[in-house]
Amino acid sequence: MAASLPSEATANWWRDAAIYQIYVRSFADGDGDGTGDLAGVRAKLPHLVELGVDAIWFTPWYLSPLADGGYDVADYRTIDPAFGSLAEAEKLIAQARELGIRTIVDVVPNHVSDQHAWFRAALAAGPGSPERELFHFRTGRGTDGELPPNDWVSEFGGVPWTRLEDGEWYLHLFATQQPDLNWAHPAVRHEHEDVLRFWFERGVSGVRIDSAALLVKDPALPDFVKGRDPHPFTDRDELHDIYRSWRAIADEYGAVFVGEVWLPDSERFARYLRPDELHTAFNFNFLACPWAAGRLRTAIDGTIAEHASVGAPATWVLCNHDVTRTVTRYGREDTEFDFGAKSFGTPTDLALGTRRARAAALLSLALPGAAYLYQGEELGLPEADIPRDRIQDPMHFRSGGTDPGRDGCRVPLPWSAQAPYAGFGSTAEPWLPQPADWSSYAADRQSADPQSMLSLYREALRLRRTEPGFRVAAGSGAQQMTWLPSAPGVLAFTRTGGLICVANLGAEPVELPGHTDILLTSGPLDGEGRLPQDTTAWLRN
Ligand code: NOJ
User: Fold this and answer.
1) Is ligand 1 within 6 A of the CB of residue 64?
2) The 3-state secondary structure of 66-108, one letter per residue
3) What are the tens digits of pLDDT across the range 37-72?
4) Which atom of ligand 1 is nearest to the CA of 174?
5) What does the alpha-carbon distance between residue 328 and residue 268 come to, in Å, rounded to a whole number?
6) Residue 308: inside a domain
7) 164 and 42 both lie in a single domain
């Protein structure tokens, strides 16, 4: 079975893979109850084969009260019954693998659900118990312990401490229902190593590590002092020892890691990618970058340089389940992504955003390294406006209702234009409402249209796999691309394999550089064969 995989020939599949992110709850509903599930994913595997992806990353599919969309894990060895069963997950992993698609699962080591057996035991055991040592329980400050133990701010906003009836407080960098684990405790390390093995044993090829730079805390849990190194809970040196031990386990199985590492400092970021640590990490600098040639070029150069320093491949990401969908973001005045700047009612030009998203797709898929796609990106879905009374994301509530939250990019996918709920599969209403025009984005409609976003992604991924211009020339090492001279506002580069990519972000149309064939463009050339604004071309040389 595995021998039929084209990428099986190399253990380095992950260095240039196209990896598709599935947010299970919203991908496809196999049993009609309004929530996506594993049966739905299995039914849609042909879509992923036709799209041409090498791997799927599943956001957490484990038992969870879904207080944070599954990033509140109650049991890593059980699939949430809303999604299916462990047997179905095993079947799905095997079936995908037969089709040439590998599976990456999500592990959330910073915290667990407040319904996890460990946390329930810690609550029951009370102050001073060994059960509480697995978490960060503290007494409060103030005359009566009525104030939180320190001044930290939650990643979701607000105070990251909750007080219990017995008077103790517990730390949660995210929502109240996500108590942080104490990584200084050997049982925490041991348990996670066991969880990794559990999934590797089931044929999983990789693990995405949630909040990978946050696990370790200063044991004194001191107040935050701006500029003081090390930070009390971000990017602490002790983390690297944890990832070295994880790497040794992954190596036993030939599996790989992708870390969710949000760090602006490129030298610190690259430390996670040293040869005995994580294989890859998400490129958030590129993801958050505005649609501006200079900024993108700086982000690309920075990415290539930081990865070259440790011999790791770059990743290229335009969106995921946490950020504003690309066609919406690029259609706004401010095209940068910033969690703190999100607000309701931002004016958006979707036609402009879609043109830019098409150009950005070809730009990012031409860059050397691995590429991540988020479900619905291939359909050009916009960010949906969720009625306030239907919002579920804790980020919205913890902002006091000012942040629209992340549900707008998590709306159940449209598969068939004519079917109820745009073919998501539900007979009951989907867990998040779909916008009225959702069926116009349906996969079946786009499949039949050569100009659609879906057709663009299919053709781009096909060329990315088959076109010799994308091959990495032997001995080229990190130097897999070279910038070509270009007009201001234009990004033009050649890959060592010969592909030329030109993206025009400037106002004026530009001549294409010398080439033998035009492989693909994100939009039509003008009447004189020039590349218009917000358009990317792939050329064969
Ligand atoms: C990052 C995940 O991508 C996000 O969805 C989640 O809310 C936080 N980590 C907490 O687990």
Assistant:
1) no
2) CCCCCCCCCEEEEECCCCCCHHHHHHHHHHHHHCCCEEEEEEC
3) 999 999 999 999 999 999 999 999 999 999 999 999
4) 10
5) 31
6) yes
7) no
